[in-house]
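Budget justification, computational time. The allocation requested in the original proposal was used primarily to generate structure tokens for proteins on the priority list. As evidence of use, we reproduce two of the resulting records. The first is shown immediately below.
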Amino acid sequence: VNGLMTLGFAGARQRTDLCNESLMLEKLPACGKSFEEMMKKVDSKKWCNLTEFIMYYDNFTQCTEREANNASCFWPNPLAEGFITGIHKQFFSNCTSEKVHWEDPPDEILITLILIPVMLTCAMITLVVWCSKRSDIL
């Protein structure tokens, strides 16, 4: 019973802790600095390829989460998200997805692709009608 009460009181105390935003904002730059040092190991031309630095980014994410939790703040929160967005702008602002420009095929190919199913449909309809009129033979 004492153990359950202790857990209950600890949970109640934890819920009443207020987020120390100033402490969190004081500690988050250390995460950014560490990430920046790790990213120096990666060629800047490869910054858009997540597989090149996924471990560094994971460490950065865990660091920001840990510092937010140490300051009794939930994660993510608007302040942490703002900090993370700043890091993204610093390192990944040139990473844009290339949009595929779709074009129609040449007219000869397009006409062929349209006419083949139309002709097959007409042929199948003709075959069905012809077979239904000749049901006495089948």
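The second record produced under the same allocation is shown here.
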Amino acid sequence: AGVKEDSFNVLDLAEYTKNRPWWRKVFAPSSGSSAEKYNVATQLVIGGVTGWCTGFIFQKVGKLAATAVGGGFFLLQVANHTGYIKVDWKLVERDVNKAKQQLKFHSSGNKMSPEVKSRVDEVIVFLKKNVILTGGFAGGFLLGMVS
């Protein structure tokens, strides 16, 4: 009756990244901008490729979402006209009016919460520090949307 002892290899990521500079370069927390790490051409390529991939995926998901929403709306209309479901239009109108009032209330105040404001400020600082990377991403995104 021998007991089999399982052995596991433990991977220490800190030690792993010390021996692999490319890993550290890509995933290490960065205090500066990408301009300090990469030249202009590299930033444009990285931004362009990631932007194109994002745009391409966004386009495919957008078409799928539009098809799903349109198809769902069509099926609801067919079900409503054939009598399978009954829509309470008074309730829909009341909820839409309530949503309009809330939107008017929030837009009239025009104040952001401190958490949202700090996140927006972080994004703006990042975009300013990485303007070439961001430009490449935007161009790639637009190319991905049309391809």
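A brief technical remark on that second record: Residues 33 and 125 are 10 Å apart (CA to CA).
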